[in-house]
Structures are given as structure tokens and as C-alpha cells.
Amino acid sequence: MFALKKTEIVQKILGERVLPTDASGEAYAPANIALCKYWGKRDPELNLPVNGSLSISLQERGTRVSMAPSERDTLLINDELLAADDPKHVRLFDFIDLFRVDSAPALRVDTQSSIPIAAGLASSASAFAAVVMALDRAGGWNLFARELSILARMGSGSASRSIYHGFVEWHPGVLENGMDCFAESLYLQWPELRVGLLALNTDTKKVGSREGMNRTVRESVLYQCWPDTVSRDLAEIRTAVQERDFTRLGAAAESNACSMHATMLGCRPPLLYWLPETVETLHRVWGLRNDGVSAYATMDAGPNVKVLFLEREESALREAFPLLDVIQPFASVEV
Amino acid sequence: MFALKKTEIVQKILGERVLPTDASGEAYAPANIALCKYWGKRDPELNLPVNGSLSISLQERGTRVSMAPSERDTLLINDELLAADDPKHVRLFDFIDLFRVDSAPALRVDTQSSIPIAAGLASSASAFAAVVMALDRAGGWNLFARELSILARMGSGSASRSIYHGFVEWHPGVLENGMDCFAESLYLQWPELRVGLLALNTDTKKVGSREGMNRTVRESVLYQCWPDTVSRDLAEIRTAVQERDFTRLGAAAESNACSMHATMLGCRPPLLYWLPETVETLHRVWGLRNDGVSAYATMDAGPNVKVLFLEREESALREAFPLLDVIQPFASVEV
């Protein structure tokens, strides 16, 4: 894949720095859940988003990447060797090629994921963030976090946010080359916050997120309202996080997620990632709220539901959802 | 209820005509399914819609109303006497009061409905249309169909369409008094068209359609896109009906229904009439299409699904949905 714009950005950021022939490095990056969603690109090559987004990183759930010189490019995902023509292999080494010039070595890349299988957590976000951080270490580049974020973004949009722990805001920027389009930590702690993962369905999605996003932008009349929706939601979510106002955060995040899925319903034919279990779960979360339990749902481009709540509601949530996988985003994390 | 604007319209249409003391009459009006939905009012008292809509009437599924002078106002629905403070009794006689002056009699109103219980067919549409037609006969007024449509609309918005059989378009109009806001028959036959009703859930809705509509207009940022969505869909549905292009009709009607539900997801908290069975049914309809069976779904403000298809697909549909209630909108109907 020839990626002129990406190459230019890498050169701009790396300058004289290169990947040495003995390049080897290791890094970990957390998965993240968007509280205000990324949905739609203004530049598909550079993954520049239409709108800003805000996420919470999932602490110990993420991807560890180690890389070392090798005879030929090799990718192992959770100890499983991928074929050289596997789309994941191709996508990763197309990306790594952006950083290799002349004498740069072939690499063996080992990725270990602690993301529950099919929980609807985009593993590409933590993987590309960790790859960029591992490259930085392998090359001894000492890049700034926002430079790592820009580079990770070019691998997978939401990877820009997985550079950080805790609350993260990804700025959409206005520049054509995306040099002002990076994520930053909000430097805020909220130790009581919990994210519950519900893996409702483990089948492969019929329509990938990238295709879903592109179809929505192209086909859905309702997508025209998405930028306004995000303007409102993003400001509100940022304020709610700053003020540790959980009710406000939950209401805005849930509304934002539902609005994103709503934009997909305007496609032809309608695009619906939800399954019966999704709707059952949503009604159950709303039923809990009716009973005084403060819990809110969010969903990404898939059928699975993530539940936001505070520590004090954990037992009520575990009772309602026995299979809930509870994440503590701020458990001994420095942000 | 004091309804100044409504009273003015009734006077404008009736002129010198009144309801005689021996007023008695009988009429039938069909239920209807909107292929392009009515969602949002520009005037809540007169039920003037934000957008035009287009429906198909359900032939023998509807409401028969007979009325006759009586000692006191009495409403029977399917032979069951309602209390005088029942909201349905109050709503009906508030409406009938618009037509009664001075010596007009108390009335006994008998309604018989052939609409399957809880199939998500607004029974108020056929009921108010039949009431207006029965009043017209009782008074010997001989009103034009579009006048009946305006009067029925003031009882229940979609009742404006139930004055007619077959395909019906309801014009939104631009006048403040709504005198240009009435429905008309498209005068088109499509004998092969079928509408399948699926009563998935018979519980009372937690949020009535009127409240859902009002909440969406008030709370949902996505509603701003609804008028544009309808402009596109309505033109396409009208053309598809005129050209008997079923694929185009189905695709546009399904998209319009999904877009309407999408606007509700933008409410806070999100408004979702769908149940797990709704989503299961939608995926099954889409699965049928994938298998070459031309069928499309539509839904109103409730969890139940209506399926559009042509005669030749009837056995495939009955196999997929054993409980399907198949309506032939054009079975020996003169439009």
C-alpha cells in the first residue's frame, strides 16, 4: 500500500531518527471505551475524524507488544503465528513500513492481548498504540505522547486514545495533515468509576466498524445531525468528568452511544449491530435505573453492551448481570 | 376541554349544518399503516404534522361506528361499556362536542374493531375516521372526503388517512388553520401487495405514541434531520407506488421506519419501543432478503413489526413467521 500522506507525517515527526538494524522494544497500551464516540472520518487515509471524542482507558485490559529483528516479518497474536497474507499481518507491516527505510530490519512482532474475546473492545486500538510505543523504544526516539498519538492514529483512529490511561480526549483538529489531530490525557482520577463488560455475542460481525462508519457517512441522512449531537455531548461529558458528576456523565454517554447507533439506522438498508440480547440488556439497565440503581449503557459498533457505574453499585450490577466483567480504570494507575 | 381553533374549523366546514336531535348514523373506516411516517406536529391542537406521510389502508381491518340519540353520552368499545371518566370516553365526547350545539342530543356510540389486539395498529385512526363519517351520515351533511379528513385529523392525526381505502397521502399544508392539511387517495390499485402483521408483544406501552412524538421533537438532536429524511423518502415512496416498484417501495419504507425509531434514540434518556423480539424479527426479515425473498419491515411507535411483501412471497413469509396475519389491502375494494 502506497501511503503518501502518512509517509510525510512520519518524516515530519521522526526527522533524522530511524529504526536501527538491531531494533527491539516492548510496550503495553490499554484498550479504551469511548464515552463520546468517534464516528466518521474527514480524511480516510490519515484517520482524521469528523468530531472530537472522549474515552476511558481500561487499565490492565489491553495489548502488550514486543518486537525484535527477525529473518522475515512475522506476526504472532496471542502466540499464534499469522500467515503472511493474513489481513492483520498485511495491515500491521504496511503500517510498520512507514517507519522503515533502507537498512531497517525485518521484524518479529509478538502481541499479547488481555482483552476478553469478542467483548466488542476494538483490539486494534490498543494494538496500534502499543506498536507505536514499542517502535519508539526500539528506535530510542523519545517522542512526545502527542506525537505517539498522531502516529498511532494513522494505524487505527481510536488508537490515538490508547496511548494514555484514564480519561482521554481526542481533538479532531482542523489541519489537512492532521498535525493538530491527537489525543491528550485529561489528567483526572475517578477511583470509584467502574466499566462493566458484557460479552453478549461472540460471532464475527457481518459489517466491520470501518465499513459501518463509511456506509453511515455516505448513506444516512441522519448523519448530518451527528456533528451537532457530538458538540453537545462532548462538552457535557467533559464537564461531567471534571465535576465527577456521574449522573450527567452516564446520561450523556448513553445518549451519545444510542445516537451513534441511530445514525446507522438511516442507512439503506438499515445498519443494525444490535441483537435481541442488546435490547434486552438495554431495557434491563433502564429497569435498574428505574429501581434507583445508577447505571448507564454504552455500545460501540457491535452488539455488546458496556455498563458504566460507580463502586457502590457493583453488587447490584453483578446481581443483575452475573457474567459482568468489571474493570477498575483507576486501579493503581498513574495518569 | 376548550378547543377554540378546532371549533373554528368545524364551523368553517359545517356552515349552517347542525347535528339534528334524532341524529343516528353508521360508518366503517379502515386502519392504516404509514409507509412514510407521521412523526412530529407543527400544531398540537389541530394535529398539523411537520411532514407529509403516505399510508396503505388495511381493508377489512378497521373500526365500525354506529351512533344514536341516548339519555346520556355512552361509549361501548367492542360491546364493553366504558366509564364516563375513562380517558377514551372523555377524548371521544370532547371531540363530538365540537359538532354539537344547543339542542344536539346526547349520543350512544358503539365501536366494533376488527383490528387484532395489540398488533400496534393505532385504533384511534380508524375510530376517529369512522366517527366523523358516522356524524356526517347522522347529520346528512354530505361533506367532501377532504373535509372529513380535516375533521378526523383533529381527533387523531393519522385518522386523516383512514377516511380512504388503498394508498393515501396526507399533505402537511402550510396554513395556520390547517385547511390545506388533509389526506387524499392516490387512486391506485396494487392487488399483489400484502401487509403481514406480527403481534410480538401485547403489553401496554410505557410511553404512548403521542408522548413519544412530543419527547422526540423536544429532546432529540437527531430530529432536526427528520424533515430532510422524509422529503427524500416520501417522494421515493410515492414514485415507487405509482410505478409498482416493490423493491424501491420496500427499501424506502423500511428505511423511513428505522429512521423514525432512530430519532427517538436521540432522546434523553433514549426512547426505544423495540423489544428483543423486534430486533429478532428485523434480522429475520433481512435474512429472508439475503435468501432472495423480497420482504421489508416497518414499525410504528411500538415493538411490533409489519412486513411488506408481494403475493408470490406469501408462502415463504408464512413459513418464516407462522403467526403472520396477512392482509390484502386491495381485496375487492373500490378506491
Short description:
With 335 residues, chain A is of the alpha+beta class. In chain A, 36% of the residues lie in helices and 21% in strands.
Descriptive notes:
The structure is a homodimer of 335-residue chains. Chain A starts with a helix and ends in an 8-residue tail after the last strand. Helix content of chain A is 36%, strand content 21%. Chain A has helices at residues 4-14, 87-97, 123-139, 145-155, 209-219, 226-242, 246-265, 276-290, 314-320, and strands at residues 25-36, 41-43, 48-49, 53-69, 74-77, 80-81, 107-113, 167-170, 183-185, 193-198, 296-298, 305-310, 325-327. In chain A, strands 1, 4, 5, 6, 7, 8 and 9 form a seven-stranded mixed β-sheet that branches. Chain A has a four-stranded antiparallel β-sheet with strand order 11-12-10-13. In chain A, a hairpin with a 2-residue loop joins strand 5 (74-77) and strand 6 (80-81). With 335 residues, chain A is α+β, with helices and mostly antiparallel strands. In chain A, helix 3 packs across helix 4 and helix 6 (226-242) runs antiparallel to helix 7. Chain A has two domains: 4-185, Ribosomal Protein S5, domain 2 (2-Layer Sandwich); 193-327, Alpha-Beta Plaits, CATH 3.30.70. Chain A binds chain B through residues 221-222, 224-225, 228-229, 232, 251-252, 254-255, 258-259, 261-263, 265-270, 272, 274-280, 282-283, 286, 289, and chain B through 221-222, 224-225, 228-229, 232, 251-252, 254-255, 258-259, 261-263, 265-270, 272, 274-280, 282-283, 286, 289.
